[in-house]
Amino acid sequence: MNWGDTVDEVFAEEILQDFRDAGGTTIDTAYGYGDGDAEEILGRLIKQSDRDELVLVGKAGISRTTGSRVVDTSRGTLLSQLDASLHRLGTDHLDLWLVHTWADDVPLAETMSALEHAVTTGRARYVGVSNYNGWQLVAAAAVLRDARIPLTANEIEYSLVERSADAELVPAAAHVGAGLLAWAPLGGGVLTGKYRRGVPADSRAASGRHTGWAARRLGGAADPIVDAVATAADGLGVSPAQVALGWARARPGISSLIVGARNRTQLRTVLEGAETSLPPAIAQALDDVSDSSR
After folding, report:
1. 32 in a structural domain
2. Number of domains, the chain
3. What domain range includes position 15?
4. The whole model's pTM is what?
């Protein structure tokens, strides 16, 4: 998401190389990231790689070409954005293609018909949605089921400071057989503990574009959760990020974590978190203290 925005191509190449050296394969992007620059950069970088070793996840339905956020999940727009993404990435298919968000002004059948067409024409191997709630997910899965195409994934925000999915969405996803891809598993950096003594100048909360999004997770109900994560990290001798990622990775229904490292140091912490398994007592304690964020 940061590529072409706060991460230039030089740093992107370093991050991608370190990720692949560590055995990473899945790369999440979207038509609207960096106004298209994210896919352009990724496309140039993966030309030197074996495409078959990568799992490319793309999304369509949100753009900023007019300077503001535009949501359009009509069939024509989705397929047009898919073709643009494939061109930028230099590939003939995505391994997983998602509708980026729900839209009330487009019939669900029309939106899902774009996913069906992407699969039948070979432009996407699997399809799913992003940021759908429980009933929206079940409704979408039902439409695709009639076309004999499985809805395989829902990409959602999920972390110790954002657990609203637990009540309805997690069981709904299990019901339809969809995996959940958790974005912002570190709560926009809140769970790393870097905001405990103020807002760093280079942080997400300090940047104009994401101020509102990150600020909602600072203070109030988040404070005891952040403190608990820090206490667990001290006791285990690991970083708070490793604790938060270890907790999220082990949650029921969570298939993978979507992380946005902006430099090699952040990526190293993320990769360490992917290997962190929390003792059951600590995982339960974190579950209890974060229960109010559901």
Report:
1. yes
2. 1
3. 1-157
4. 0.91
